[in-house]
Design brief:
InterPro entries: Pra-immunoreactive, RDD
Strand content: 5-15%
Helix content: 55-70%
Shape: elongated
Membrane topology: Multi-pass membrane protein
Keywords: Cell membrane, Membrane, Transmembrane, Transmembrane helix
Mean pLDDT: 91
Number of domains: 1
Pfam families: RDD
Largest sheet: 2 strands, antiparallel
Protein name: RDD domain-containing protein
Structural class: mainly alpha
Length: 188
């Protein structure tokens, strides 16, 4: 089977990201609202200083006592939702909803077979667990960006770091039975 293009992989990931974001809005919405309430005093004071062109060097008021715990809770819930969305579907079929729409699938390097739960979890861990490090000056987001861009620099299999860890490749599925006989692009 031909390897999936970077564009197809990125588009599928963005679709899945949108779905997980919607799930988070539903499940995490109350926690985000509470977090914003905890930040209201420093944000209000900051905005007042900007509007009044106040150049005071006094520190802003502290955020509420629960702000730190709320950030950790929000990130734990977001990571758990992503895990619950991605790992079971990848284990069973090698496809999330986004991958299904773009007709791409993750398969083991050695054979066209289901990933299984262990391999799907290893694949997700490398990309998903850094979400917990977003709290650390965006370190998790940087790690995820490096992972997402890594297929651009890997040849010949175009594996992302999470693919390398789980020993998988992402392939383009044919649209019709005739496409199987004449696959476009590179084959692994």
């Amino acid at each position: 089977m031909p390897l999936a293009s970077f564009g197809a992989r990125l588009s599928a990931r963005l679709i899945d990201f949108g779905i997980v974001l919607l799930l988070n809005a539903l499940v995490n919405g109350w926690f985000v609202w509470r977090y914003l309430q905890e930040l209201s005093a420093p944000l209000d004071e900051f905005w007042r200083r900007v509007q009044d062109q106040d150049r005071t060097t006094d520190p802003l008021p502290a955020a509420g006592d629960q702000a730190g715990a709320l950030v950790v809770t929000i990130l734990l819930i977001a990571t758990s939702l992503w895990l619950a969305y991605e790992v079971p579907s990848m284990a069973a079929s090698g496809q999330t909803f986004g991958k299904r729409l773009l007709r791409v699938r993750a398969v083991p390097v050695e054979a066209d077979a289901p990933l299984g739960f262990g391999r799907a979890l290893r694949r997700w861990n490398t990309l998903g667990l850094p979400t917990l490090l977003w709290y650390c000056c965006g370190l998790g987001l940087l790690l995820q960006l490096i992972d997402a861009l890594s297929p651009l620099f890997d040849h010949p299999l175009r594996q992302a770091l999470h693919d390398k860890r789980a020993q998988t490749v992402v392939v383009q599925l044919p649209r019709t039975p005739d496409d199987r006989a004449n696959p476009p692009g590179e084959t692994p």
